[in-house]
Amino acid sequence: MGVRAATRIGIFVFLLSIALGAFAQANYPSRPIRMVVAFAPGGIADFAARSVSGRLAEALGVPVVVENRAGAGGVIGAELVAKSAPDGYTVLVTSISHTINPSVSRNMPFDTQRDFAPVMLIADAPNVLVLHPSVPASSLSELIELARKKPGELNYASSGVGTSTHLCGELFKAMTGVELQHVPYKGGGPAVTDLLGGQVQLMFATLPTVLEHVRAGKLRAIGVTSARRTSVAPEVPTLAEAGLAGFDVDNWHTLFAARGTPREIVERVNGELNKVLNQPDVKQQLLAQQGAEAWPSTPAEARAHVRAEVEKWGRIIRGAGIQLQQ
Q: CATH number of 126-224: 3.40.190.10, 3.40.140.10, 3.30.300.130, 3.20.20.70?
């Protein structure tokens, strides 16, 4: 084959690939979309995915099938999507742990920022600092004073090393200079159980897991971890309002596609999902069931948020001296 013929064939193949890619984008979606949730059923990520998947399916005209792939703090589900075809037919719903994992895990099977195309932020919910009623403190200032008088004697529970409930405690320690003893559990449920029983004194718990206990007087709420009060419990101040200026942690949940997914597909899904999240009944469902606020956003906003969170948690984890896990 001559050089000219080979060149013509190469150009033809290149143009054909562009044409086929453009055709695929113009006809997206033409088959079911797989929405991988990186956590087990029942949590905020799962609930958020199931709250929007039906409406998104109606808007796109194809089924959106939610599939739970839990394990390793969200890594297993994320790896599946990172290694999927970048065609918009396999997407990921994950949480704040996505930006924590790179700083606590030694052998990540993907790059959190490089290997994903952020589509949009979906929802966020604060943690809430709660105390067992036996703790002689009814405000943030009283808790800090107590912790300073009894360094290392107060225990705080978490749902595991490297979770937001753990790192809220580390951020709290760094900002106040108090000494607290971390007690990690295998999940939020066992941690809340021991908190109710008085085996531990406090916890930065996810709001839905403790709100009923707070309202029943079994736990005392000191403040929510977000920058603004939550609509589901507007009577609880933020920790920043209570005196810890700059404390801002949200359990956010984001939709990602694989790296290389065409911009037109990302923007199509983003546009339709924003419409879904702006529907009043969807907003109310997220708020009533999970204490979560819908978070309509652009791909650029999602990317910037992920970048900022990776940097933030990296600083906190290094500062706390948390050891990398295998």
A: 3.40.190.10
